[in-house]
Amino acid sequence: MARTTGSHSDITGPRVREAALRLFAKGGYAAVSMRAIAADVGVQAGALYNYTPDKQTLLFDLMQSHMMDLLDAVPDQADAPPEERLRTFVEFHLSFHADRPDAVFIAYMELRNLAPDNFARIEALRRDYEDRLEAILRDGQKAGVFEVADTKIVTLAIIAMLTGVNTWFRSGGRLSLDEVSRQYWDMVRKAVAA
Amino acid sequence: MARTTGSHSDITGPRVREAALRLFAKGGYAAVSMRAIAADVGVQAGALYNYTPDKQTLLFDLMQSHMMDLLDAVPDQADAPPEERLRTFVEFHLSFHADRPDAVFIAYMELRNLAPDNFARIEALRRDYEDRLEAILRDGQKAGVFEVADTKIVTLAIIAMLTGVNTWFRSGGRLSLDEVSRQYWDMVRKAVAA
DNA sequence: TCATTTAATGAACAATCGTTCAAAAGCAAA
DNA sequence: TTTGCTTTTGAACGATTGTTCATTAAATGA
Predict the structure, then answer these.
(1) DSSP code of A168?
(2) Residue with more model confidence, A164 or A6
């Protein structure tokens, strides 16, 4: 056997990425072999190299795609009052991250498995995202509606708090995402209140 | 050569654990070989098996030690008012975790590399720790000094926020631990305030 | 129908993995 | 100094790793 019936790069390509995302998230980049990914797709290991030059690039592409999707999706409403922008940000972060737990997990856990160049590029994207939140906090601080000592610290604290939800939240569990979102917004709102 | 001059289990044993802790934290459990740990200690790979039955147990022992140290150290002051207990908890968490970044990193990142039995035991210890904080929140809620919708959520949110500090805080950086602690307490205090 | 392109196989590569163990050598007590 | 114990070496084990490539067969377009 060589090429199999029904095989097509438009089908196999995405499936490779999906399998890698799921398996990396579950077992960790270093613990998942190319053969394991191939087996999940239903293909031999060699075939993966039609879709990625190597394992490292496969990881990097997954992380970069996630970060770019995130930056594309983050709402930009520069005119609205800071408190409304902050609430929108909180709700966006929770819902966006709840929708793609595997990608989020990888983006936060596999940084150390990136080659230095790749690491720097992902870190830059993450900083871009943090800057979106920090800008809101600074505007609110300037306007006197927020009382925060150090916007950078508060930015990191809020993001850590929100992203932590992904370690326990499961859709269909005790609480709906709306309920979780309401409670986190409550905490954030009070924490930065003047 | 066989046994080397000056070799002694009281010396090599701790050094194996220290090397494993540092290397696991830097590179990840799966990516660090027993030979790499041995080289760091200055010994051949086979010698490690005088100190651990296998690699998995080495990881588990490191995580268990960390969690037990944490539970031993967490202050217990059941009589004090909830707000004071909460402030003490926040300060304790930040200072304890700032002192051992490698152990913290491993305890949060290598859970998926634990065998199921080991995982369950570490998770139980983590829950114990979370329960310490939740008890404070519940007492404050009952006393009417805290206003929190769901103590479990607030517990996880606070711990995620505090532990997130470890991703960026470096002693000797822009901010002292005291200053960081002050700001986090400020946020936590306001977030749970009635 | 036939030639070309695309996609997958499966074997092979050298390297590395965790782990075992007999042999060797330093150490401590007699 | 001799004896027994402790600690380490160094080689070896089979399994697995990421990756390459000639070969083969399905898909496509003329």
Answers:
(1) T
(2) A164
Q: What is the pLDDT of residues A155-176, one digit of tens each?
A: 999 999 999 999 999 988 999 9
Residue of A nearest to B114 (CA): A27
Q: How long is the CA A30 to C1' C21 vector, in angstroms?
A: 29
Mark residues 80-119 of chain A whose C-beta is closer than 7 A to nucleic acid strand C: none
Protein CA B34 to sugar C1' C17 (Å)? 9
What mean pLDDT, rounded, does chain A reach?
96
Q: How far in angstroms lies nucleotide D28's C1' from the CA of residue A65?
A: 31
Residue A2 has pLDDT above 90, yes or no: no
Domain B9-52 belongs to what topology? Arc Repressor Mutant, subunit A (1.10.10)
Residues B160, A160: C-beta atoms closer than 8 Å: yes
Which chain B residue has its CA at the smallest distance from A33's CA?
A: B30
CA closest to C1' of C8 belongs to A3
Structure-token pair, residue B54: 């296998």
Q: Residues of chain A whose C-beta is under 8 A from some C-beta in B? A: 26-28, 30-31, 109, 112-113, 149-150, 153-154, 156-161, 163-165, 167-168, 175, 180, 182-184, 186-188, 190-193
Residue-by-residue DSSP string for B33-93: -HHHHHHHHTS-GGGGGGT-SSHHHHHHHHHHHHHHHHHHHS---TTS-HHHHHHHHHHHH
Residues A94-103 pLDDT 10s:
999 999 999 9
CATH class of A58-192: mainly alpha
Tell me which residue of A68, A53, A64 sits closest to A121, measured CA to CA. A64
CA A134/CA A151 separation, integer angstroms: 6
Q: Does the distance separating the beta carbons of A180 and B157 come in below 8 Å?
A: no
Q: Are A185 and A90 in contact (CB under 8 A)?
A: yes
* C-beta atoms of B160 and A167 within 8 A: yes
Boundaries of every domain in chain A: 9-52, 58-192
A149/B186 Cβ within 8 A: yes
